[in-house]
Amino acid sequence: MMKKLVNFRLMLFIALSFCAGIISVYFSVRGVFFWAVFVAALFLFVNLIFIILFSRSKTRKLSLLFSVLFLIAFCLGGLFFSLRVKNFEDADLGNHYYEITGKVVEVYETAYGKKYVIKNAHVKGNLSGTLTNKIALYVNGDSDYDIGDFISFSDYLEDKPLFYEGRFSANDIADRVKYTANVSAEEVLFVGRSRTVFETINVGIRENLKLGLGEKQFPIAYALLTGNSEQIDPDVIYAYRSAGVAHIFAVSGLHIGFLAMALNFLFDKLKLNRIIKAFIITAILILFSGVCGFSASSLRATVMSAVLLFSAIGGYKYDKYTSVSIAALIVLCISPVQLLCAGFQLSFIIVIGMFLLTKPIYKLLKFLPTKIAHSLSSVIAAQLVAIPASLAIFGQFSTIAVIANLLLVPVVGALFIALIVAVVLTAIIGLHHALFFLPDLALKLLNAIITAVDYQAFIIGGICMGGFVVFYYVTVVIVSDLINLKTLSKSIVASITALTFVVGTIVYTDYQANRTRAYVCGSETICATVISTPSQNVMIISDVDKTFYTNRLNRIAKTVGKDLDTVVVLGGFNCDIQVLASQLRTVFDLESICYYGDRNADVELAVMKSFPTITVDNYLDGKNFSCGDISFNFIINGNAVEIDVSGKSVIVFSAFDKDNAYYSDVDKSYDFAVYLDLVENLSATVKAERSLSYRRNSLLSDAESGGNAIVLLA
Fold first, then answer.
1. pLDDT at residue 3, as a whole number
2. Rounded CA gap, 485 and 126, in Å?
């Protein structure tokens, strides 16, 4: 029965069991024991069903053996994950001062200088020795260290927690980045330089691209070849993401596949022995994956290509599900936390989704020419399975992505190979401008096409799927060739699951959209509260640095949308309204700014000149103003604002001086209060049903350690 219903793949079931073990332990680490037990119980139940369905005498022993393998995989997944988490937790140094010497392995640009990832650091201080985990070093000011440089500095090493801003630190744990340090450029000394083969090739690619390409074309080409998109202008990245083609900057099966096909074509022309050819191609793909930092997507594609090559040599039929399962197991055995990282999830979801849906979609498109039908079915399949993942990770997806990918993928493939050939030849004979002339021209054209149009009109967001996403992927599996059902039965079952997903998502999205919430963002550089109702979004700024990080605000925008009706700037701290407007516009579409104090005509004029669509108004204590159905009233010299929204009273405090005592004038009761400083005194004086602090403290729950805290108001 099982064989008739499901096309059984042993490695696929082992990989799924391994993932289930990781997920169960992950929930346990988070303290969500119900879901930890639920996942484990569900795994055991499915395993029991498997044994029952294979209980016939001829297959009983085999089914029991497979069941034991699944159980072992489940336990190993949980064990590997727990060991990696324990290793991260046990690596705490206690936030002490150290003399540090280490090797730069990654370089990133930041708003204040550069971020260097330091590996194999030797420390002297409270403890002495070589660290097995990495350091994220933030250098303020001008510095120009490169990959492979050994540098020396002294600073406090701050331990990164297992949970940061309310989120599990999956990327830090996967990359083994455990410590942070912050120094000025003058405090860092160059010690020496030593590069691995991978680092030497990576730097060589970068330098050859710089010599041959224009300033705007170089970052695109470097990202295309190595997956490093840090040097691309954020506006350009946003344009590519809005068009649904930003995946070309993550070295994946697309790139590995193009490289493998080019190498296979070359070696066929040279009439190379196919065994030797397979080993050479695999070695080159591993080398390329290493140059790209052995990212999950590049490693997955390399393993799958190797399985394909050696299956052909051995005379075995290539099985796509088995190859992707082997790839997933290899990646997760090396780093089990990758399962919780967006890169791994997107990479494997899209590939498996393409395997599941390409054939059914192709059958629907058979009326088209064969090549077009094949290409279109693959692109549509990839986009369909990516929609829920894109909504979960980015808060949106692009409806024009199918057309954009169909047109651009062949162009990107040709450009990718042309860039590799140009890099190799320029490394040997030079002639950078001549050899990069055509790729540079193609990159200019590509950039012009992507950045010339505002694709925002094609972006869909604000969809809340919740648990109904399960029915989406169940539908994908049912319509695939993995499930053996008669056409009518398959259509009925798929229609039921798809309808459940659609109706459930519509109801859940409508339910979420009609709630009034407060999103409290407390970080080192900005403290803000966003009040979101079904019709308005308003932000109250309690404290902000001149240049602040927008990552937390980006997360809020994914949930509430990019429209921001009003920004209310409290008193009690200095704020450059023009700079604030400029920074906020990188995240939100801003309509107006209301600030506390006497009117400053120069400020208002400067903002309106820079941003004509933004209106600016000033208010003093006791003067009510409103945005839609939300009303505001500044009190205690603008150091707090009272808000009336959906019948709930809210008070948000500013970053006023600890020495003043204005807080004692507040004698009203509120449904919700948000503090910054004076937490102990304010929480004792201000009567509120619920209170929250912006920044970390031991007296109240806070938004810094808890992430963007969400408070349901109505």
1. 45
2. 65
